[in-house]
Amino acid sequence: MEVVKIATAGSVDDGKSTLIGRLLYDTHSLTEDKIEAIRNSSEKKGYDYLDFSLATDGLVAEREQGITIDVAHIYFSTPDKSYIIADTPGHVEYTRNMVTGASTSQVAIILIDARKGVVEQTYRHFFINNLLRIKDVIVAVNKMDLVGYDQNIFEDIRENFEQLNANSTCSEQRLSYIPISALKGDNVVEKSSEMPWYQGETILQHLEGLDTQDVNEAGQVRFSIQTVIRPKTEEYHDFRGFAGKLKGGSLKVGDEVTVLPSMTTSKIKAIYFHDQAYTKASAGSSITLSLEDEVNVTRGDMLVKRDELPNIEKEIVATVCWMDSKQLRPGSRYFVQHNTNRVLSKIAEITNVIATNFSGNTDAENKLALNEIGEVKIKLSKPVFYDAYTANKENGAFILIDEHTNTTAGVGFIN
After folding, report:
1. 20 and 139, same domain (yes or no)
2. Which residues on adjacent β-strands are paired with residue 5?
3. Residue 284 sits in a domain of what CATH number?
4. Residues 284/245, Cβ–Cβ less than 8 Å
5. Count of domains in the chain?
6. Which neighbouring-strand residues pair with 224?
7. Is the pLDDT of residue 335 over 50?
8. Which string of b and e fits 1-23 if b means at least 16 CB within 10 Å?
9. Residues 50 and 106 in one domain
10. In the structure, what pLDDT confidence band is assigned to residue 211 with cuts at 50, 70 and 90?
11. Which of 71, 224, 240, 364 is most exposed, with the fewest beta carbons within 10 Å of its own?
């Protein structure tokens, strides 16, 4: 079954949790005891409706305040697809959380309160989706029931968002505008009878119609070696396989490949998924490869097609979202975790801080603080095999790891 990963974004009280709860309820993804708990809690609060925001199991402190302060992953499915929703906080002080949740998503839902329209937070939410090059963005104009399902209000918000979209640097990004009421269920799963002027899809219809082959990165073949498999059995005593995830392109038996960094070449002898042999593998597949020649391949190496070499450099320039309370400064050392390759690095220069409202860059003053996004030059102790993030998202991204605490301090997207 196809799996679609969704990131949600919205300002405080825009209704993200209610939308997620409504999706779960209307797709029959909630158990009877969960529905009963929501009903009892809603009655205790004096509501004459079911508070679907209670369907997402966040922290107690979040529920008491009615806000989201951390990334939660929620799962639901239909007969055709499975979905994973990253419910991310919208507050500016949790920019790092939103980047984390959206970094692995294929689709984004940006909620806008119909009463408030496009606000400052909307700029930041769209900027991050633009930075991460999420191809399919649903702009859900929520709480249409509170503005009398007024078409003019919806059209005004769409026009304002299109002005924001003029700043986009992601030409392949697709925007869809859907007027909804998460509380009432209008245009979430079922079509709304209150908005006959809207002839488009519901949110679920749009998600169901997505071509996951389209939203997944195609790109060129990038196969990072996760582990080398040498079975200790008599039957397979000569077997030597290389396991990993194919990030971009496709491979078939007989393809000529180059091993990085050694630059040795060979051909694909066999492709395995579990214990089954296949003649071809596509992007996103977790597979084991065997080669025709006895070449030296270890964890952290990369296999690419012979005529599709990536960049191989000891210095990179990247857009970095900083996630640590300790500021990033030139001269500091971190591990760069790029795919399965971990390399010691030194921060050479922090050139600027990028405003998340599309207003431009400012002088970084040789530092990057928590939740700031900036352009950073990094020197590496040995080469990495990378593509620009715009060419291959998975091979163009990395994390910075504190060498002393082993915590993830930042996430980078190579320019």
Report:
1. yes
2. 84
3. 2.40.30.10
4. yes
5. 3
6. 245, 302
7. yes
8. eeebbbbbbbbebbbbbbbbbbb
9. yes
10. confident
11. 240
